[in-house]
Amino acid sequence: MLKVCSVCHLVYQREPGYFSGATFFSYALGTTLVGIWIIIFFTFFPELPDIWVHGLALALMLPFLPIIMRYSRILWMMMDRSIDISPQ
Ligand SMILES: [Zn+2]
To answer: What's the 31 CA to ligand 1 centre distance in angstroms?
Structure first.
């Protein structure tokens, strides 16, 4: 991840551990995605056992982790900067 935006020179990581708050968004995005997979499996494959549905939903969420991490950081920065107006 870049340290500074090349266009507006915004410092992404304001302090050590800054992105630990992004885990809240990561959790929300990940569980939402797993829930969507579970609904899809229960709708189209109702004969599958529950343990398979949940296992497959978790497995199908794993390839999306890099995207989830990126967008959770973006959401965290947007929320943090909308609350805190101090420079950088
Ligand atoms: Zn920028």
So the answer is: 29
Question: pLDDT-derived band of residue 61, with 50, 70 and 90 as boundaries?
Answer: very high
| Whether this model's pTM surpasses 0.90 | no
DSSP structural state of residue 18 = G
CA of 81 to the centre of ligand 1 (A): 13
Expressed in angstroms and rounded, the spacing between residue 7 Cα and the centre of ligand 1 is: 5
| Count helices and strands in the chain by DSSP H and E runs | 3, 0
Domain extent listing, the chain = 26-80
